Recover the amino acids of this structure.
């Protein structure tokens, strides 16, 4: 049905508008759910790294691990196990739906290679930085990593000459201001040791995911989002396990450390149970992000996904603080306020609020 026929048939035009509106609303719902799944994945991953052998490593450290190993290598290991569990979930779902053949074929295509590049940027680099920052600073870093849509907007302008108008620049400024608000909580005399460094590392995660968001926009227009996420998570998990961890072990002075830690981690039942859960939610955090972007546009999809700046601290508080009775998950009021301010900034980057209101009036 072409544009001329729609102009001649008002009823057909109304039906098309209703379909477009319904599709748009479903896209918004999917994108919002992706942010909620991101918060759940973060909470269960944090709990997993406090169970079994991880409690020994991060607690009394009976294994006698170095500070470098505890801070950096264990963070990379947690990211590797989570993404590997997520990849297994992806492949199981693809197998049930008869899509494994599509998965293997896509690996050889240009869009498939694009998704592999996205996985290397968003996995070994950004995800590891995110987990290290979580370990060092707690859920306070989650709103900082939500800067990725702002970074994506700037990189889109630089790399792809995408629009970056005054409204978007204002949104970037609001996000930067909110991140300064969050970082200011680490300046006090009572701040936990390593909190400021954790905040700085969180910016690495935001940069990596901002780059991933730009690059993945091309790949996901040509690949089924379930296939795309299977490629993403498989590449991320394997590259963490067989490339990043050995390199970091060499940096730590013991090449044999990586297989020892991996073996101990995967045989720690209490922790692996919750890594399986965190991997499940990570699958939907990323796949729904890709799907939401394709349904309501990458900018608005990223903005809705960016609501994990709220869902992350919220689910850490609910699951870790209230359900598992762990202390220390109540955020300072300034952090909650900054998370809200940052989300407003992200929304301002993604779309004009006046245009959104107009859409609702038309509907």
């Amino acid at each position: 049905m072409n544009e001329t026929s729609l102009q001649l048939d008002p009823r057909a035009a109304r039906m098309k508008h209703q379909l477009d509106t319904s599709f748009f609303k479903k896209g918004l719902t999917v994108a919002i759910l992706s942010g909620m799944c991101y918060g759940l994945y973060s909470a269960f991953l944090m709990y997993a790294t406090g169970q079994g052998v991880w409690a020994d490593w991060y607690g009394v450290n009976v294994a006698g691990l170095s500070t470098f190993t505890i801070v950096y290598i264990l963070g990379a290991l947690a990211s590797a196990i989570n993404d590997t569990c997520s990849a297994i979930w992806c492949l199981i779902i693809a197998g049930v739906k008869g899509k494994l053949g599509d998965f293997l074929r896509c690996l050889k295509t240009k869009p498939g290679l694009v998704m592999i590049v996205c996985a290397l940027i968003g996995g070994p680099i950004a995800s590891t930085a995110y987990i290290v920052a979580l370990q060092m600073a707690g859920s306070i870093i989650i709103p900082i990593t939500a800067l990725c849509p702002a970074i994506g907007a700037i990189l889109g302008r630089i790399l792809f000459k995408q629009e970056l108008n005054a409204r978007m620049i204002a949104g970037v400024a609001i996000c930067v201001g909110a991140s300064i608000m969050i970082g200011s909580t680490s300046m006090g005399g009572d701040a936990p040791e390593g909190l400021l460094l954790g905040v700085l590392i969180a910016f690495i995660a935001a940069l990596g995911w901002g780059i991933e968001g730009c690059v993945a926009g091309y790949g996901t227009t040509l690949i089924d989002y379930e296939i795309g996420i299977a490629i993403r998570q498989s590449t991320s998990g394997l590259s963490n396990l067989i490339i990043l961890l050995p390199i970091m072990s060499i940096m730590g002075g013991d090449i044999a450390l990586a297989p020892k830690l991996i073996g101990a981690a995967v045989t720690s039942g209490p922790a692996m149970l919750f890594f399986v859960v965190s991997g499940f939610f990570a699958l939907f955090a990323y796949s729904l992000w890709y799907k939401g972007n394709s349904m309501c546009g990458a900018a608005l999809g990223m903005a809705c996904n960016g609501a994990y700046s709220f869902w992350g601290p919220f689910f850490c508080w609910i699951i870790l603080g209230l359900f598992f009775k762990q202390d220390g998950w109540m955020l300072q009021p300034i952090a909650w306020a900054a998370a809200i301010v940052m989300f407003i900034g992200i929304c301002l980057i993604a779309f004009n609020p006046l245009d959104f209101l107009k859409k609702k009036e038309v509907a």
Residues 39-362 form one domain. The two ends are 21 Å apart (CA to CA).
